[in-house]
Amino acid sequence: MSSSLARMWKVAMSEEVGKALQSVVERVNQAAARRPKTLPAVPPRLVAVSKTKPPEMVVEAYRQGHRNFGENYVNELVDKASDPLILASCPEIRWHFIGHLQKNNVNKLLGVPNLFVVETVDSAKLADRVNSSWQRLRGASTQRLKVMVQLNTSGEQNKHGLPPEDTVSTVQHILSHCAALDFLGLMTIGRYGYDLNLGPNPDFQTLLGRRQQLCDGLQMPLERVELSMGMSTDFDHAIEVGSTNVRVGSVIFGNREYPNSATNTPAPSPEKTAKSVTEEAAKKMQHLTVSKP
Asked: What is the DSSP track for 125-186?
């Protein structure tokens, strides 16, 4: 690619990412305003998921004022967070790890610069491993690592996460035995493609219920326990029913591009993707009644 073409590509990319990000931020704020007043008034955090996307796109979103970014794979997060362009251009970036974490990858993940939270702790044993690794890596530092406990709310075999009935005991274990960890909240991925015309997402309702049970059992205020739920196709609804942390990728950055994909058709621009998803969400929201947890 010639230098002039490269500049044109960067300008176009910057405009598309900027417009798409602004559109998503507006939708996040609008959904938060529609929440029932009975829910904790915690401003939702938007996590821009940059999976398979180049560092330049992360930098463009950062230049638009965005700070929270998520990655699904340890190796990709390590590479991206250590990229010279991101290190130089994004000093205040906050990385969220949102993929399945294997115990043998814990040390590698915890060495990531600007790691903000691990959202996918799904067992007491994994919590112990993360806790001991963080203590060892950080030495005398008193900074605790934020973690969320991931629940498998849909019961699908191919989904990772803790059985919902183990929520209280696992969080209690973290609070009592993992001094280097700061429990932030609960996370779920949920069933893909749920039809909102059928009513509120049952996976989200399960997470809400488990948070209530957790807070009742451990005498914790609801606003103390965040909820990470909602992605590109359903984050509006997730926020309306109480999500405080949504993970949005393709609506901001465009469809993901995989090197071994069987198709080579160009991905739609983030702006077009955002528009189509927005229209689809709007149709579904017309039929949706938000139920209180």
From this structure: HHHHHHHHHHHHHHTT--PPEEEEEEB-SS--TT--SB-GGGHHHHHHHHHHH-TTEEEEEE
